[in-house]
Design a protein that fits this description.
The protein is mainly alpha-helical and about 160 residues long. Among the domains are: about 50 residues, no CATH class; about 50 residues. The protein is built from 5 helices and 2 strands; from the N terminus they run ααββααα. The chain starts with 9 loop residues before the first helix and ends in a 9-residue tail after the last helix. One of its GO terms (biological process) is intracellular protein transport. InterPro entries: Tom22.
Length: about 160
């Protein structure tokens, strides 16, 4: 297993000692870093800097071509999302109104037909005979029912 050994350059170590002597004033070092709330960066307190300011500073970091591509992608995506939501809303409107205009009357007619059939069954069970269903022409006597059933063609009402 290899071993790692640090080799120091004497010229660099002498220069570091000179710089360390310049910072030996402990009162300055402690005042700058004694409290986390007072840590500053370029003279501004980090607590005073808003997120918007940090994002605005990214303009200098991100190249113009990348910013343009990101902006174009965002605009295109938002346009597709808006158009899709509009189309979905229009389709939902058409389906809802169609269901109300066509489906509701149909459901009411089916319910009414079921009610009529239930009434006929009730009358048949009471012994009243067939009145509407299967009886031909309503409450006409049997002779007239057969006579009208044998006629060919339709007469308009009133003739």
């Amino acid at each position: 297993m290899p071993t790692i050994e640090e080799i120091t350059d004497e010229a660099l170590s002498k220069q570091a000692n000179v710089e360390d002597e310049e910072w030996d004033d402990e009162s300055d070092a402690e005042s700058d870093f004694s409290d986390d709330e007072e840590v500053t960066e370029k003279g501004l307190s980090l607590r005073e800097e808003t997120i918007w300011e940090r994002l605005a500073a990214l303009v200098d970091i991100i190249p113009s071509s990348t910013r343009t591509r990101i902006s174009h992608t965002f605009r295109t995506t938002s346009a597709f999302a808006f158009t899709g939501a509009k189309i979905f809303g229009n389709i939902a409107w058409v389906v809802t109104t169609s269901a109300l205009l066509v489906g509701l009357p149909y459901a009411l007619a089916v319910e009414d037909e079921g009610r009529i059939i239930a009434q006929e069954r009730e009358l048949q069970s009471q012994g009243g005979g067939p009145m509407l269903a299967g009886g031909g022409l309503g409450g006409l006597p049997q002779g007239q029912q057969q006579q009208q059933a044998g006629q060919v063609g339709a007469k308009p009402p009133g003739f």
